[in-house]
């Protein structure tokens, strides 16, 4: 039976904190002590009779100071006390078991027994589900538009709708977002309209980015969503600096940054994680581990147990979540945010998911993975259907609501595209503005030269850019 | 060897100091108090003023807390606290990336890269993030509050990794500014301008001058404008353009040339990006000759940009080809440093500066 905890919030959250696999020190060491490779009682308490055995086996090192009976001497090296051991131990390259994954709903959307989660109201749940549907439909229609040649490029977030929407729902509008490029759902949740998305994709004069970047490179200062840049993981250290600013200004807000499994290999990931820990910055690192970095599977990306285990290397509290479980994502982000702000610390969230779509419209992923695999994830682990089941089980959704929503979104999307397509492009002078706060002399001269060139050879230049 | 010894054995007579550099003071005081300061102290003063005048400004980098390996950040942590002046982990991409994030939230982030030779891990952050932050967002966001300080240039014994002049890499990046001061008084004013400029700035400090250069520096808060070159020595026969520590060498070459009856006009560019073409153009149209000198290797150095631009603008007024007297196309050597450097005699023997009978092809 589902244990829907209705106790007071602080008690609830205390229980949650100790039971969720956040890897707080006491929890982790208990966890590890049970998992020693040899079975039987932990051999750290006993000295093996065979010294050769001890020397030849690798052992899982415990993290607590349970070495009292092996060696009572300690030494103060810079960085703190460490106890000594006369035994040659290598910390294993991995734990016996992988870090477990927090989930609330099973594959069919049924709440798991003993599941713990932060309750969501009907309004929030319905908005979450509706926005997941909207995101998926927006992706469908923009993707098709690209295939038809009306858009130059597009990247979908298929399969990652729960990560997108549920994380956004758990944050406050004051939390600043540093996205990678597969998180438009966060903008959607905050109120970015379909028209605003379309304007950026078509690069028209209503695009806040003034037509300078490829489609899906959204940004919105009013929604605290920093503009997407295609460079991988560069946003991570930026987010740490922003978080530090929020802390210094005493804001009740954190920075949140997203990246993929591929992004966790970049140097900026390591730079950012280390800085975040040292600077005690209130930042959430949300990794969308979707199994693929374009055509590179995670087995070619790292040899660790995913990304969650890397948190400990930097002194960062971490959790692994089922990224296709909207309730689990919501709860994890909600909890992480509280800890980050209250305790001035970074949190790492590894959301396990699957990239159902191609990397982008420039990719055909059937060339490197089986269509069956894609199909399985799309059907069996679909985040929308799982959450829909749960929402409906509360009596908050219906087939009628679904079809009403879908027909409304479809109409809105087609209208947004129609309007975006016929809206004129930004003026040519926007090629030269914003390079600096004020255009320097060399840019003013270059603009004159370009305008002269256009005057002499208008046929060589696109006619839809106003001069 | 002589030049090496002379570097270390005497305090420098700074170029332009006898003539007084043109400077805009932010406070109109009748009698300004000045103090004799070396370069690192002048920079230190600028940082004190920057932190004092903007409570949302920060100074950080490796070893910044105890005063920095070149003493530029002395006293800042004690005065402004470790939350605003702090050490960072040893990671340039992290330092600059973190600084961009701080600046993006409206703060002033004055980051220190310990030595310009180590700036390259941060190159991606500088080129792809800082330089494009405002443009790509349609001016919704900017990181104009970012200033990156790095000691650059030859120091007499620095070898490959303590002597580099990487300014040319950065001059090729639209969206940032590149500033290089020649002296303590210039450094203080230019650094304050850079910190307060609403664009990200890379500020290279000639490390050789940290202790060697001493000058009267006004104690008050003043700024020297960016993108304005200064004629620090007027002349009529040839224009010389340089920046940073090289100007000292070039001034010596000017003095030598003057003995031969050649009147030299010496220009300190100060800001390399965006650079003041107009001042250089006007000067070359007057003199008809141009010599550019920098420590950085000649191929692809910033001298090439100046040369090409002046050729375009002043071709018919030129009496001789534009000369570049620069470092060689080798990694910066240790034992061979005196041979590598663009010395005053190399400048003097260049085709632009010497009389026809003494011309060497350099």
How does this structure look, described?
The complex is a heterodimer of chains A (467) and B (362). With 467 residues, chain A is an alpha/beta fold. Chain A has two domains: 122-422, Rossmann fold (3-Layer(aba) Sandwich), CATH 3.40.50.970; 428-457. Chain A has helices at residues 9-19, 25-33, 51-56, 122-147, 161-170, 184-190, 194-202, 235-248, 267-279, 310-314, 326-343, 371-380, 383-393, 399-422, 441-456; strands at residues 74-77, 80-83, 176-178, 255-260, 283-289, 292-293, 296-297, 317-322, 347-352. In chain A, 42% of the residues are buried. Helix content of chain B is 34%, strand content 19%. Chain B is built from 14 helices and 14 strands. In chain B, strands 3-2-4-5-7-6-12 form a seven-stranded mixed β-sheet, with helices on both faces.
| 3D shape of chain B | globular
Strand tally of chain A is: 9
Q: What amount of the residues of chain B lies in strands?
A: 15-25%
Relative helix content of chain B:
25-40%
Class by SSE composition of chain B: alpha/beta
Helix-strand pattern of chain A: HHHEEHHEHHHEHEEEHEHEHHHH
Mean pLDDT of chain A: 90
Subcellular location (chain B): Mitochondrion matrix
Subunit structure (chain B): Heterotetramer of alpha and beta chains.
Organism (chain B): Brassica napus (Rape)
Protein name (chain B): 3-methyl-2-oxobutanoate dehydrogenase (2-methylpropanoyl-transferring)
